Every structure is written in C-alpha cells, then in structure tokens.
Amino acid sequence: MNKIHKGDEVIVIAGKDKGRRGEVTRRVNAEYLLVEGINLAKKHVKPNPMKGVAGGIVDKTMPIHQSNVAIYNKATGKADRIRIKILQDGTRTRVFKSGEQIKA
Predict the structure, then answer these.
(1) CB within 8 Å of 34: residues ≥ 6 apart
(2) Would strands 56-61 and 40-45 be described as parallel, antiparallel, or unpaired?
(3) What pTM, to 2 d.p., does this model score?
(4) Which domains, from first to last, does the chain contain?
(5) Where are the beta strands (DSSP E) in 1-77?
(6) Which pLDDT tens digit goes with each residue over 36-79?
C-alpha cells in the first residue's frame, strides 16, 4: 500500500522546491508522483493552428520522487509521517504517527 495517494496535500522536504506545498495530481509509477506547481520545467511548444495551440514557452510539471515529499498535517502545520493501521474488520487505513486518521 502506497502511503501517499492522489489528492493528498504534501510538502517538499528536499530539492529546489523545499518547503513548498502542493496537491498530488497523479502517481507516475511506484516511486514517482506529480505534484501541482512543484518541480516545474520550461517546455518549448511549437504552434499548431489545427489544434488551436499557440506556440511559446510553457511550464510543465515534472515527476518528483516520493522520498522527497512528506504528507502535510493540517493540525500541526508541518510535515508528518504515516503508518498503516489495521482496523478490527481487517481493513487497512492510513494514520499519522500521532495517531489521528488521515482525512481523505
């Protein structure tokens, strides 16, 4: 079970965007994820009048490794770690290390 899911708010803990927060838009694979507004790169785009695309330089979100982000805990206002808790009925859920359940 991956500890960081799509829609989670994360904070960058390492790299050029350290300290910035964003929402996970999707998981690229088992290790990389896309975070909205984080790890931006410039991409040169050719104009395509058939598709209505104007040319120029656009910002593109690039994947970031999951070890460089931590889930953001709104209660404490800081990055927090996650653990997996197995409930009485056998289902698995994610909780913060402090014990409170992650609201998804």
Answers:
(1) 24, 25, 26, 27, 28, 61, 62, 63, 64
(2) antiparallel
(3) 0.82
(4) 9-96 (2.30.30.30)
(5) 9-12, 21-27, 32-35, 40-45, 56-61, 64-65, 69-73
(6) 999 999 999 999 999 998 999 999 999 999 999 999 999 889 99
